[in-house]
Amino acid sequence: MMKRQPPFFPAQEVCGTVVELGEDVEGWAVGDRVFGSCLSGGLAELARVPSSTCYRLPSGVDPTVAAGLELNYGTSWHGVVDLAKLQQG
Predict the structure, then answer these.
(1) Counting CB atoms within 10 angstroms of each CB, which of 14, 47, 67, 84 has the fewest?
(2) pLDDT tens-place string over residues 67-89
(3) 79 DSSP 8-state letter
(4) What is the pTM of this model?
(5) Given a cut of 60, is residue 1 above it in pLDDT?
(6) Omega of the bond leading into 50 within 30 degrees of 0 (cis)
């Protein structure tokens, strides 16, 4: 586990609608439905999320499922591929 320095607010996984963009953000628009991760504050009504950690929410995907996908899937992938070196055969 990473120990965060205060101020720290729980939860990294988010899913929602883009309401504002940073100055240098490209490829996204206000109104886009996204999921991804942030370093802190994922339980807040509004969260700041780096565009590099965002993915478009596919139509038909439940937002509550998508919100937990990135971190859970990424942790599983890291465990079996990076650490355990799982390979074909």
Answers:
(1) 84
(2) 877 777 778 888 999 999 998 98
(3) I
(4) 0.71
(5) no
(6) no
